[in-house]
Amino acid sequence: MSVKTGTATGYLDLLNQLRTFLTTDATLTAAGQNWTELATNSTPYGVGFDTVDFETYLKAPGLSGSEAIYLNIRAYHYTASDYYNWELRGTQGYNASASFVNQPGISGGAFLPLWNQPIPYWFIANGQRVIVVAKISTNYESMYMGKFLPYGTPGQYPYPVAVGAMSDLMDLRFSDTSAHHFAFFDPVNLQVCGVDNSWNQFQNWLNYSAYATAQNVWPWGYAQNDTNARLTWMAPDLDGGYPIFPARLEEVSPSPNCRGELDGVGFVPGNQQSSENTINDGTDTWTVFQNAHRTSADAYCAIRMV
Questions:
Q1: Mean pLDDT of 227-255
Q2: Is the confidence at residue 225, as pLDDT, over 90?
Q3: Residue 181 in contact with residue 113, Cβ under 8 Å?
Q4: What is the pLDDT of residues 49-71, one digit of tens each?
Q5: Confidence tier at 252 by pLDDT (50, 70, 90)
Q6: Per-residue model confidence as pLDDT tens digits over 9-51
């Protein structure tokens, strides 16, 4: 695993720096876990009101170095509404003659709201997934692309891939405070590939008064039908430390199941907590980040850095 922090000049430079990191980082390369960029497209084109600026088609090698995990990103903007965003897609292959939205076995889109000003960032990657956290004004916007840790063998679960960011809407500005703007770990839109290679939308939120119950991420989705039962009551340990719980992909419908957990992502209690805090659990070092603009006690995750 490798971690890089820095500051990009804007949403396009952030993507350029991520591409360079994934494909050339020395730590990833030494482990045989550097990614391959299959193709790019820098010719602008329109999608509705938006202008797409850049596309990248990536393949991650997995932890073994011999897998093929297909993950694509395109950057776009709409100046009149002041949004400068990314769209993420998982696919099950690459076809050079197909467009961005017509790649083989493609997921639904997940959207990351950014801006065209300096962006402090954190990149956390290994051979099977990448996590990006971008600080936009006082918000923390985050994304996850790649394999999760399945509760099953490769034969049982051949392509355990999740793609999530901050929204289910393409045309959303980072300042939005609606239920369409939630992090991938407490999601309104986390695209998860199933055992049958179909994509499912995991979501904890439909809106602020209706909670999704079919497929969600635990423990943020622990009490979807009772706001008062969400994990705002959980406090630090008696020794002042913080417990970290795995981010688990659970479903009630169509049948009760637990698919696995996100790689290197955990729930951490938010009482006496703030973003960019560091937690050492005795084995690993984690950094705490909030869910967009939210700072309630159940609005934080921890991401493993070392």
A1: 81
A2: no
A3: yes
A4: 999 999 999 999 999 888 999 99
A5: confident
A6: 999 999 999 999 999 999 999 999 999 999 999 999 999 999 9
Residue type, 72: N
Structure tokens at 146: 């790649």
The residue assigned the tokens 């073994």 is 64
What tokens appear for 247 in the block? Answer: 């981010």
